[in-house]
């Protein structure tokens, strides 16, 4: 058993003149709850896409539980669950069908798929909506059903891109409980997020990425070094405005 | 403000060309072709000026065809550029007095609209010898072009409001169906009346000149023949039609800007549907998913629209000419059409295709599942189309041959499509979009891909065609059996090859396919 659940070695990607991810090295220890933070357009999604087999890197490697995702895709993906950001689902299926589909595609047997689908729908609070088409789901419900499709095969590593976006607080708390449980029993979770507060409370480790470059990585306490994660993040990333911006937006000035 | 919206439309048009070189080339080729047609029309008009006695009829027919074309083709068939549909302006609070005219005017900023205007003005040169009438003719041509574009805009807005309603879609299909079925009789009656052309041309144009189709186009003719009463009536009618249409378009825009788009309610489905009936394997799951989409996703329905229509068209044309040969070819044609329909499968998935990549499903399973779903749905229509013509016409000797060619066509088409769709994706309407909408970026590349796909299907069919054709000529049941055997063996082999090789390509190129569907190209 590898001690590094996700080993990113020198991943790089360039879109035309724009370097989206610049030679990133990142080690995610097994059993950690890893937060990936960065401003908009920092390259988080691009990096995670390359680490999960969705986007071919220009150079570099990504090892999932010791298996190179680009050299042994099928074996690596069997231990990996992914919630990708900004992709559709097969939304003409019902929630129940979609989760089952994800299980069957991975070659699981029918009885197990059926059992786990019901369990997942229950913990995601979607039992009553399992027969609705996913196209009719709200954004938060779609997020939750996508999370269920990523978890049905009980992967060792979960890569979740913006899992809490548009999810209501109650569901978010439920999902956090599930993920905490999962980590407590030896699973590894990577979440990307903008919400520093959440990452500081929830994660054991954190990596900061900006402009396609990794600025810091390590345990949350090491990275924030006594400051709040948010302040440290702003320190690392920079770019705070000087608060003189939009004087005309102050309604009292009229 | 009006200028802003017009500029926006111009910018959209320009950026559309920038998106891909392929599209630009497509537009240029299409444009050159259309310009060629317009030049021909204009030359014809210039040459025949003063030479023909039916100039007014020609004007009316040209104008009516233009309006009719705009009324039918964009809203129903090809879809329209909806980048400036009124419901997009819901959030801006632009006064209706400005938005209405702006959107109407922006309808004129498009390549087809400009070509229509040029073409109609070119056609009006048929009056070039009569100095007094030519200005009227040019104005009438402009009015006809405006009428065409207004009709198109009105119908488009109406159909946009209605498109969420499944009933409307079905109604559209039914209408198209009727038109197609009536085509045979119309053409044959037209043909039989060709000797006495004036007999039907005069009453037809006379009627048209009082309808929105030809009212404006009838003006120069009426003036030239000195029929001032008719000129006055048509003038009033043209003004009323134009004004009325403008009013309607304006009203529809106003309504569309304050009515949020209707929500599309999809039916519930209890249980697992097709997933219950397929083997619990990745291939089975893909097949069940694809089958569900064939029933739930209207984009798939468009692809198979021709299947029931085709035999009807062939039957009608046979009815007219007394030669039913085409009926016997319904089976193979339907086989190719249905098999070909999965060649856009991954494009239709759009980014939902990510699930297939993330689960690491084998390429073979993906290909085989999609082909199996299509085969399950196609086999009954193909069998019927292959057996029934021979059985009904009492030529039982030919059934085996028809069956062989039809099955080979279906299997080979599935094999080629399994291969092609692992390599080539193209721009399709997005999931949930109007299936009739033409997506941007469809250019020469798509046409070439589809041509190549269908072409290679035809070439691969040759070994089956040889015994089939000889058997047909000799009325030989034995050769029919040979066709059946060759067809089945070749078809199965090529399907398996298509799935295996397509699966390999798929696995090699899955991330590139993902990038392509993200851009929908």
List keywords for this structure.
heterodimer, A: 254 residues, alpha/beta, Rossmann fold, 2 domains, six-stranded mixed beta sheet, 9 helices, 26% strand, globular, B: 521 residues, mainly alpha, 22 helices, 74% helix
Give a structural overview.
The complex is a heterodimer of chains A (254) and B (521). With 254 residues, chain A is α/β, with parallel strands linked by helices. Chain A has two domains: 4-79 and 155-253, P-loop containing nucleotide triphosphate hydrolases (Rossmann fold); 98-152. Helices cover 35% and strands 26% of the residues of chain A. Chain A contains nine helices and ten strands. Chain A has helices at 44-51, 73-78, 95-105, 110-123, 139-151, 169-184, 196-202, 220-224, 229-237, and strands spanning 4-15, 18-29, 33-37, 59-64, 67-68, 80-83, 157-161, 188-193, 205-210, 213-219. In chain A, a hairpin with a 2-residue loop joins strand 1 and strand 2 (18-29). In chain A, helix 3 (95-105) crosses helix 4 (110-123) and helix 3 runs parallel beside helix 5 (139-151). The longest helix of chain A has 16 residues, at 169-184. The mean pLDDT of chain A is 89. Chain B is an all-alpha fold and 521 residues long. Chain B folds into two domains: 2-258, no CATH class; 275-519, no CATH class. Helices cover 74% and strands 0% of the residues of chain B. Chain B has 22 helices and no strands. Chain B has helices at residues 2-19, 21-48, 55-78, 96-106, 111-123, 133-162, 166-192, 197-208, 219-224, 228-258, 282-296, 298-303, 306-321, 325-328, 330-340, 345-349, 354-358, 363-392, 399-420, 444-460, 462-474, 477-519. In chain B, helix 19 packs across helix 20 (444-460). The longest helix of chain B is centred in the last third of the chain and has 43 residues, at 477-519. The radius of gyration of chain B is 27 Å and the shape is globular. The interface between A and B is large, with 42 and 45 residues.
């Amino acid at each position: 058993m590898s001690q590094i659940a996700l080993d990113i070695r020198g991943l790089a990607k360039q879109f035309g003149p724009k370097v989206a991810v610049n030679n990133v090295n990142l080690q995610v220890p097994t059993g950690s709850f890893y937060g990936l933070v960065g401003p908009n357009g920092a390259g988080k999604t691009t990096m995670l896409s390359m680490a999960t087999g969705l986007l071919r890197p220009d150079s570099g490697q990504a090892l999932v539980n010791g298996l190179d995702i680009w050299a042994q895709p099928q074996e690596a993906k069997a231990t990996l669950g992914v919630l990708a950001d900004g992709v559709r689902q097969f939304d003409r299926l019902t929630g129940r069908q979609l989760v089952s589909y994800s299980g069957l595609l991975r070659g699981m047997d029918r009885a197990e798929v059926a059992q786990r689908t019901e369990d997942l729908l229950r913990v995601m609070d979607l039992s009553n909506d399992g027969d609705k088409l996913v196209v009719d789901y709200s954004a938060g419900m779609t997020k939750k059903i996508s999370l269920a499709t990523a978890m049905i095969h009980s992967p060792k590593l979960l890569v979740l891109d913006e899992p809490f976006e548009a999810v209501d607080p109650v569901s978010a708390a439920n999902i956090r409980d599930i993920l905490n449980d999962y980590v407590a029993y030896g699973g590894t979770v990577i979440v990307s997020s903008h919400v520093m507060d959440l990452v500081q409370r929830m994660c054991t480790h954190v990596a900061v990425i900006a402009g396609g470059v990794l600025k810091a990585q390590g345990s949350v306490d090491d990275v924030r070094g006594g400051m709040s994660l948010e302040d440290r993040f702003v320190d690392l990333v920079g770019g705070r405005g000087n608060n003189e911006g939009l004087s005309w937006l102050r309604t009292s000035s009229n | 403000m009006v200028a802003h919206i017009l500029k926006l439309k111009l910018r959209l048009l320009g950026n559309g060309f920038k998106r891909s070189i392929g599209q630009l080339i497509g537009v240029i080729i299409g444009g050159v072709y259309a310009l060629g047609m317009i030049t021909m029309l204009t030359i014809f008009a210039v040459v025949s000026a003063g030479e023909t006695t039916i100039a007014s009829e020609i004007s009316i027919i040209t104008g009516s065809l233009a309006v009719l074309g705009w009324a039918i083709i964009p809203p129903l068939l090809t879809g329209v550029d909806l980048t400036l549909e009124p419901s997009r302006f819901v959030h801006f609070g632009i006064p209706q007095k400005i938005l209405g005219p702006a959107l109407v005017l922006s309808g004129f900023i498009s390549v087809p609209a400009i070509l229509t205007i040029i073409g109609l003005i070119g056609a009006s040169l048929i009056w070039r010898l009569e100095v007094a009438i030519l200005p009227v003719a040019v104005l009438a041509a402009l009015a006809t072009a405006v009428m065409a574009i207004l009709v198109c805009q009105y119908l488009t807005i109406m159909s946009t409001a209605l498109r969420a309603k499944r009933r409307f879609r079905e109604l559209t299909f039914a209408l198209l169906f009727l038109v197609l079925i009536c085509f045979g009789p119309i053409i044959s009656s037209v043909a039989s009346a060709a000797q006495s052309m004036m007999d039907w041309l005069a009453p037809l144009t006379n009627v048209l000149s009082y309808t929105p189709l030809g009212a404006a186009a009838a003006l120069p003719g009426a003036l030239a023949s000195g029929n001032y009463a008719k000129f006055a009536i048509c003038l009033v009618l043209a003004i009323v039609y134009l004004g009325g249409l403008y009013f309607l378009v304006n009203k529809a825009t106003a309504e569309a800007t304050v009515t949020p788009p209707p929500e599309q309610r999809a039916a519930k489905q209890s249980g697992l549907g097709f997933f219950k009936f397929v083997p619990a394997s990745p291939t089975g799951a893909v097949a069940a998913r694809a089958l569900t989409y064939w029933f739930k996703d209207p984009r798939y329905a468009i692809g198979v629209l021709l299947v029931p229509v085709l035999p009807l068209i062939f039957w009608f044309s046979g009815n007219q000419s007394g030669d039913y040969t085409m009926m016997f070819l319904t089976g193979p044609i339907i086989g190719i059409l249905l098999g070909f329909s999965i060649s856009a499968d991954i494009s239709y998935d759009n980014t939902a295709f990510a699930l297939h990549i993330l689960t690491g499903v084998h390429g073979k399973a993906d290909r085989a599942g999609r082909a199996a779903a299509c085969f399950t749905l196609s086999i009954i229509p193909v069998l019927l189309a292959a057996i029934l013509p021979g059985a009904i016409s009492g030529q039982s000797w030919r059934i085996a041959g028809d069956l062989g060619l039809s099955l080979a066509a279906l299997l080979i088409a599935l094999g080629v499509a399994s291969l092609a769709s692992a390599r080539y994706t193209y721009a399709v309407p997005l999931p949930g979009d109007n299936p009739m909408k033409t997506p941007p970026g469809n250019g020469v590349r798509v046409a070439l891909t589809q041509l190549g796909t269908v072409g290679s299907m035809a070439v691969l069919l040759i070994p089956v065609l040889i015994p089939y054709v000889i058997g047909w000529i000799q009325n030989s049941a034995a050769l029919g059996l040979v066709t059946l055997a060759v067809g089945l063996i070749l078809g199965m082999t090529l399907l398996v090859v298509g799935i295996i090789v397509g699966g390999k390509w798929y696995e090699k190129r899955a991330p590139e396919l993902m990038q392509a569907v993200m851009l929908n190209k």
